[in-house]
Amino acid sequence: MTTPVSVTAADRERLLAGGFDLAALPEGVDVHGPASLPLGIDDVKARFTLYYVGFPTGRYVIATLGDIGGSEPALLRIESACAFGHLFGSLQCDCGWQWRTSLRTIIEAGRGILLYAVDQDARGAGMAAHFDIYQLRQQEDLDTSEVFVRIGALWDSRDYTPVPQLLRAVGTRTIALMSNNAARVALLEEAGFDVTRAPLEAELTVENMSTLMLEKEDLGYAWSFATHADVLEPLQASVADRPQTVAAALAEPGVAPTEHVEASWDDIAEQVRHLAGRVGAAQRQVLYLTDLPRLADLDGFAELGVRTLVTPYPHLPPLLTLAATSSGIRLVDWSRRNAWTVERPQWAPLAADENRHAYRLVGPDLAPVQPEVARSYVRSVAGWTSAP
After folding, report:
1. Which among 143, 123, 122 is positioned nearest to 131, based on CA atoms?
2. Which residues of the chain fall short of a pLDDT of 70?
3. Is there a contact between 322 and 309 (Cβ–Cβ < 8 Å)?
4. What is the pLDDT of residue 16?
5. Are 131 and 68 in contact (CB under 8 A)?
6. pTM across the whole model
7. Where are the beta strands (DSSP E) in the chain?
8. Residue 382: its pLDDT value, please?
9. Which pLDDT value is given to residue 160?
10. Of the chain's two ends, which shows fewer C-beta atoms within 10 Å, N or C?
11. Distances in Å between the alpha carbon of 335 and those of 140, 252, 262?
């Protein structure tokens, strides 16, 4: 039997006595344990057996509860590190929710495995890269796939090679994998495990929806909700041959709306207001627009309950993004598969003060279409009116 070189004779005896099969691991790994610890969440708790295993490619902690070696599937959660979600309770991802839910589910079942990949923050790019990703996403309106390119990292560089070895070491072969990731199911099946998938889907919110929708679209996660692309596509199709007409829909996160409205750029806000009167409060959280909004309309959208505004443009005018933030709205660019393939110039804000908003006509990259053209809107008692 090949023994990991960094395991002492005493450690080896303890590991073998605890049912940990060192022969399942390659030579050169660093193994410590077992540690018996009570783990709990909210009102449930149980005593788990934990091991630390350091591979040349990364560190792992594996925690087991109950009999995981029988013919009945053992619940398994493979969790990649996420400092934002696991440590600080970030609402922009579902990492913390998935980890807590997995722990609770395993405790309530009385048996299962938690496998924590210590070095896989930001899908393997690392914690420092995770900060860079958020900075680029928030400051430069780049979507997740683009920021990985910008920082020179793969979209998903996680290495799951040690996972089958770790599962064999703790003596399990039949698994109920708590995951939405089909790639992880395929990996375990190819390694000879009997795998069923136990869905693990967090509630979609205005905070986490863009992150989760990116993962569904780019990684093929098996989630049930509609993405921004699913909602935008029919809206765009409805006005594709009418560049002067804007289509809009109100929705709750992940639910495709049943109706939409269409109007000119000047009048779309009024039509959105009428639409809001026909739907419930939950359905007003997300506003989809086929075109860029006016600065003057943002406060009104916020008053309707809109918290996120999604539009299919790869670049957003900085003045528009700042104004949206000031109104309490998160402006989301969702070009991706929704980028317009037809000519569709936009009125982008050029300057603004308390009396006047000036716009110029731009293309998808914000380059002026007609540099000499500017259009202004002046506040009056009756609202915003066109001015030469």
Report:
1. 122
2. 1-14, 16-18, 122, 124-126, 135-146, 151-157, 370-388
3. no
4. 66
5. no
6. 0.82
7. 30-41, 44-55, 58-65, 74-80, 112-117, 174-178, 194-198, 245-251, 261-264, 286-289, 308-311, 330-333, 346-352, 356-362, 374-380, 383-387
8. 38
9. 85
10. C
11. 14, 20, 20
Give catalytic residues, as residue numbers. Answer: 156, 158
Place of tokens 């279409």: 369
CB 336 within 8 A of CB 229: yes
Instruction: Judge residue 51's burial from the number of C-beta atoms within 10 Å of its C-beta, 0-12 exposed, 13-18 middle, 19 or more buried.
Output: buried
DSSP assignment letter at 85: I
Say what the pLDDT of residue 336 is: 78
Gap between the Cα atoms of 52 and 33, Å rounded: 6
Identify the pLDDT of residue 368: 75
pLDDT at 249: 98
Q: Give the pLDDT confidence score for residue 229 in this predicted structure.
A: 93
Name, in order, each residue with C-beta under 8 angstroms of 336's C-beta and a sequence gap of 6 or more.
143, 217, 229
* Total residue length of the chain: 388
Whole-number pLDDT of residue 59: 92
The confidence score (pLDDT) of residue 235 equals 97
- Rounded CA-CA distance 258/262 in Å is 14
Q: How far is CA 59 from CA 5, 29, 49, 184, in A?
A: 16, 10, 17, 18
Helix ranges, 280-353 (H): 298-304, 318-326
Sign of torsion, CA 188 190 193 195? positive
C-alpha distances in angstroms, 285 versus 169, 206, 258?
Answer: 48, 7, 15
96: left (phi over 0), alpha (psi -120 to 50) or beta: alpha
List, as own/partner pairs, every contact residues 322-328 make where C-beta atoms lie below 8 angstroms and the sequence separation is at least 24, other chains included: 323/295, 323/298, 323/349, 323/352, 324/293, 324/298, 326/298, 327/298, 327/299, 327/301, 327/302, 328/302
Q: What gap in Å lies between CA 211 and CA 209, rounded to an integer?
A: 5
